[in-house]
Design goal:
The chain is mostly helical. The protein contains 5 helices and no strands.
Length: about 130
């Protein structure tokens, strides 16, 4: 019986460590992307290259596992953030939009991302305190 309890404790500890690692990787990727978006919203030179600068690899490779390890609230906020990032890349590559239109849209997207970021960080902190 003691062996079963220890195995369960070890499995829970492993899941908690995996969750914390994924959340920290997500936070780093989100932070990087927000800085890129902010930089382009201040100076739109080269905005057509925005898509190549934004990173989504951590999100793409870990979202299925993250969905198993965290609550729906956290996922909804992260999805909101990555939707903003996706919207920025689509907008930046729009051949019809003028630079002024792209800049106006990018500033709105940055505001959305900046509003979602603290919520994501607070939710991630709740998971860190469980370790």
């Amino acid at each position: 019986m003691l062996n079963i309890g220890y195995s369960r404790w070890q499995a829970k500890k492993s899941r908690d460590q995996e969750r914390e690692s994924l959340l920290r990787l997500m936070d780093a990727e989100i932070d990087y992307n927000l800085k890129v978006l902010q930089a382009f919203s201040d100076s739109p030179d080269g905005i057509q290259n925005l898509q190549t600068l934004l990173m989504i690899g951590t999100w793409e490779s870990s979202r299925a596992r993250l969905a198993q390890l965290v609550g729906v609230e956290y996922l909804q906020e992260v999805i909101r953030l990555y939707s903003s990032i996706h919207a920025a890349t689509v907008m930046a590559g729009d051949p019809v939009a003028s630079i002024d239109e792209k800049l106006d849209n990018l500033k709105k997207i940055v505001v959305q991302a900046e509003e979602a970021r603290p919520k994501v960080q607070r939710m991630a902190q709740r998971y860190f305190s469980r370790l």
